[in-house]
């Protein structure tokens, strides 16, 4: 089957997941000291920003993958469903993270939970690309096998680096969050992005 319906469904799930992030930020009930109350919500703002950019990053790379994946089968649909399930779990883990830092309790546990969700999400993401590129079975002519392999190597780093951040967060929670935050620009601006774009048709000479 073609991938149009899969992509449309995925876009809808990404949109819902990224919107759910704002629900965790509760409006202060006591407005007598509003500035102070708003300031106390800084963990929620932090979780919102990091998670919004992470989900946006997953969506952008998912979109880029499906520039080259031109057909889908039931296995690919299943792998994509597992990925979306874990994406939708990010708002919950972000809420737990914010709550722990607001109270100052169980911060290590909350960072580990957040990191485990990110690591787990990287597994089906890599599986989608790996499955599609094997023998070029689901890819179109817009990418060569060598280019697909180079992209796969970069994707492999995601779960590993998030795993490192999770382990560091188990020791020093703030350090784990710093690693998660630093990986956002790393993957938003990858040097391999030109391989993820469809080639533009050559313009006829005038």
UniProtKB/TrEMBL annotation:
Catalytic activity of the protein: K(+)(in) = K(+)(out)
GO molecular function: potassium channel activity; proton channel activity
Superkingdom in the source lineage: Bacteria
Keywords from the UniProt entry: Ion channel, Ion transport, Membrane, Potassium, Potassium channel, Potassium transport, Transmembrane, Transmembrane helix, Transport
Spans through the membrane: 45-64, 76-99, 111-129, 160-188
Topology with respect to the bilayer: Multi-pass membrane protein
Subcellular location: Membrane
GO cellular component: membrane
Family: Belongs to the TMEM175 family.
Protein name: Putative membrane protein
Species the sequence originates in: Kribbella voronezhensis
């Amino acid at each position: 089957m073609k991938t149009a319906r899969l992509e449309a469904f995925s876009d809808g799930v990404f949109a819902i997941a990224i919107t759910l992030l704002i629900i965790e930020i509760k409006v202060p009930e006591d407005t007598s000291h509003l500035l102070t109350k708003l300031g106390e919500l800084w963990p929620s703002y932090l979780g919102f920003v990091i998670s919004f950019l992470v989900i946006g990053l997953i969506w952008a790379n998912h979109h880029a993958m499906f520039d080259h994946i031109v057909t889908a089968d039931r296995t690919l649909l299943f792998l994509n469903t597992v990925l979306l399930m874990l994406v939708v779990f990010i708002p919950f883990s972000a809420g737990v993270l914010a709550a722990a830092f607001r109270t100052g309790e169980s911060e290590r546990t909350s960072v580990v939970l957040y990191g485990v969700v990110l690591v787990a999400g990287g597994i089906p993401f890599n599986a989608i690309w790996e499955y599609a590129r094997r023998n070029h079975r689901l890819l179109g002519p817009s990418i060569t096998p060598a280019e697909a392999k180079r992209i796969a190597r970069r994707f492999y780093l995601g779960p590993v680096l998030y795993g490192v951040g999770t382990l560091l967060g188990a020791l020093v929670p703030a350090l784990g969050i710093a690693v998660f935050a630093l990986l956002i620009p790393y993957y938003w601006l990858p040097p391999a992005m030109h391989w993820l774009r469809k080639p533009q048709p050559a313009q006829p000479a005038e």
